[in-house]
Design brief:
Largest sheet: none
Structural class: mainly alpha
Protein name: Calcofluor white hypersensitive protein
Number of domains: 1
Distance between the termini: 131 Å
Number of helices: 3
Shape: rod-shaped
Organism: Lepidopterella palustris CBS 459.81
Radius of gyration: 43 Å
Keywords: Membrane, Transmembrane, Transmembrane helix
Strand content: under 5%
Number of strands: 0
Helix content: over 70%
Length: about 140
């Protein structure tokens, strides 16, 4: 019974320790693992008081910094991609709006041109009719 309780409390302690490192690493399991390795090397170095432990501690700290730097770079790249996609979306919106306006202006200009051509045709027909009657009156026509 005592061994079972010890195992349960040992498991609870391990979960708590894992949660602590994961929280301090900002949710990154790789950084948490490197930080745990660093702390383990540091404790080993203190307990043994040996120089090789210091070397391992320095190496694991370098790994922690490298992993954190990699995570920061990945985060910066994600931010740049997000910003770029937002800019692309805005530009696409502006392009679509400009295309819509251009199409509206083209249709309006087409209507104005058709109206002007119709007016010109009507005026020409009226003047032609007047000229015909004027010329016809010279020669005795109606």
């Amino acid at each position: 019974m005592a061994a079972r309780k010890t195992a349960i409390w040992g498991g609870v302690a391990a979960v708590g320790l894992g949660t602590y490192y994961l929280y301090n690493a900002g949710g990154s399991p790789k950084v948490a693992e490197k930080q745990f390795e660093h702390d383990a090397a540091k404790i080993t170095s203190k307990v043994r008081g040996e120089l090789p432990g210091k070397e391992k501690e320095a190496k694991t700290q370098a790994k922690v910094y490298t992993e954190q730097a990699g995570q920061n770079i990945d985060s910066a790249i994600d931010d740049v991609k997000l910003t770029t996609s937002k800019v692309d979306a805005k530009l696409e919106g502006y392009r679509a709006n400009a295309e819509k306006k251009l199409d509206e202006y083209r249709k309006e200009a087409g209507k104005d041109l058709s109206s002007a051509v119709d007016k010109f045709d009507k005026t020409v027909e009226q003047k032609a009719a007047q000229s015909k009657s004027w010329i016809g009156s010279w020669f005795g026509g109606k």
